[in-house]
Amino acid sequence: MRASRTLRLLLVLPLLLLAACTAGPDDEGDDEPHRWPELAPGQRWQPPPGTGWQWQLTGTLDTSVKAPVYDVDGFNTTKEQVAVLKKAGRKTICYLSTGAWEDFRPDAEAFPQDLLGKGNGWEGERWLDIRRVAELEPLMAKRFDMCREKGFDAVEPDNMDGYQNTSGFPLTAADQLRYNRLIAKLAHDRGMAVGLKNDLDQIPQLVGDFDFAVNEQCAQYDECDRLAPFIEAGKAVFHAEYELSTSRFCATSRAAKLSSIQKRYDLDAWRRTC
Q1: What are the C-alpha distances in Å from 176 to residues 3, 162, 207?
Q2: In order of start, what are the domains of the chain with their CATH numbers?
Q3: pLDDT digit string (tens) for 195-222?
């Protein structure tokens, strides 16, 4: 995430109010869910470039949005809700924070205090010392087990670029590569796909370890070309913009084969598609 929730909402509240008056949770003409090919035993789902998606992390889950892929909160989404989405032909992605601690999660007390670093700009969240993989691996494994048991097809691990932030720890690029590859392995060992969240600098090294990418605001910051290795590898880039209207990024997104949507910063059900 690029900025604190409070700062973002203060900056964009007028835009959000306007958007609320001009669009609903699903735009006309959006794609119907794909007819997904059957997976061979042991084969993981891998979304191709241009696959449509919905990203909702807050509010009551709206399962009526006509998107072939849903990226939703792993803790708050129930097994029954995942089953409803799967019955409707949707693929489901389990959102988890793997690089930062969140004080509002049910397993928060399982994290030793000395694993927790500085705040990451979101209320109740602190960076994790990702160098200490022996302690973090079992904690993350339990979360990935939860995703698998609920029936998710994939995982979106968030806060995967702590080494580029003021984390409170002397994290290096090598530390981040090691940890991100561990996260990918935890998902793959459970038969789930996994996406690389942001972390643009390490895409060349990690594109082979991840099945898709999730990106925020590459159009606003003129960074979308850096995601091309995923497209070239036949892997979707699920992309969201907050401050740019669709008229400002959709033409470029379509040309680049990105799966682009406009969202509000609170990531409720509302969206606009390209």
Answers
A1: 20, 7, 14
A2: 5-34+46-273 (3.20.20.70)
A3: 999 999 999 999 999 999 999 999 999 9
